[in-house]
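Team,

Forwarding the record for the chain on the shared tracking sheet. I've put the sequence and predicted structure together so nobody has to dig through attachments.
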Amino acid sequence: MKYTAFTITIIVAISCNLSKSAYKLKKDKLAITYANTITAAELETHLKVIASDEYEGRETGKKGQRMTAEYLKNEFIKDGVAPGNKGSYFQNYPLIETSAPQATFKFRNETFFSGEDFYFFNRYANFKSMEISHTNVFDAGYGIKEGDKNDFSNKLSGKVVFIKAESPKEFKSWNWRKKLAAAKESGALAVFFTSDKFNLNNEKYHHMLNSPSLSLESKSTKGKSDEIPFFFISDRFYTTVFMEVGEPIEEEVLNNPFYNSIVFDYISTTKKIESSNVLGFIEGSDDKLKSEIIIITAHYDHLGIKDGLVYNGADDDGTGTVALLELAEAFQKAKSDGNGPKRSILIMPVSGEEKGLLGSKYYAENPIYPLANTVVDLNIDMIGRLDENHTKGNYVYLIGADKISQELNDISEASNNTYTKLNLDYTFNDENDPNRFYYRSDHYNFVEKGIPVIFYFSGVHEDYHKHTDVVEKIMFDKVETITKLVFYTAWEVSNKPSRLKLNE
């Protein structure tokens, strides 16, 4: 799973008992037969390969990612799954690798360095340098614009805005991303976030902030002209540059350009690399319905090697990746037996999720099969562990199922009630979920195209994005059951007479 920096929230999850679904579903013996080909033992066999040290953490654009793509292709071939891209199992796509920034702010005789005194993420915004004057600085407090509260009451056009990253409890949905959007809408030139957690987050994300980043070639080539620069700054930065003896610097004091000028310089280098999505295709059995596509996704990339340690990513998202292999095998077995689903199934392990949902974005913008014919995306990301809100493995978080199609949500619940009997936890489906998981995995690129989705997720655990996320800690029985839920849901959606109803 791709992490969103600086939003670290612990919430108490309430596991729901088996829901009463409006959708009626009877047990299908054929569905059970093919679902039973999905086994914990086979899931473990696959995961021991792709999450081994030999695969070097599967970093996007690197050797381990390419090795994994070949492994997935070969498993598709072994199971008889057809290539999904005009005779190829790969959808290659170009990326731009941007080096870690060499960035500084200079004020008087002080120099502030990226990665020490400040950090930022929008490396592709159309800016390389800027000069700020204290006279153009506006303190927006918490940066909230809701109801009677408006921290952007003054016109901000051409001004630099300071905002507190954290929010009061009554405005918990206002994370820094929402505040950034509000500042941009108000005409801000740039945004500086102050945070109580600066030192903690700077340490936690130091490697990521000081490592090369990736973007789709089209995005980085054209630039993101609509993006404004934003920074998270240390207390030292803030008090040195923008405060004098604890008080804001008064405009009349700042009549010396040397005194009030703050200069930002940014240098980076770029190079082209390539990554790929892997596509396995099971053509539908119904002549009229086979043009409609059920897509099932998981990202097969992870974080690579850091400081000599292999980040194996067994759960993130090795579990989702091996689930796709078992799903492909199950659906292909059904087809080979003459019992294949009516609609077509596209099994698509995607890369680049850890770098910004890049592979799924590329597919959504360059679809192999028309998006108008795409019925649903079922996305799997981290399903092999327990989070701190659960003590048993008989649960799964479901996110997004009702957002575009309530019928999809009803089918999901009916499939679970009929077959798998997991506790379906909708905690993170809340519109006000501060973790914003709905926006943080590959399904969201399909959401933006108006396609119904379900995101299957087990939650964040203590080994998330650490080198200790290893195979030995995976609960394979749990992975098996959740994978079967995905199968049963896809089976029903693919075989029902009518296409999913969309919400009005």
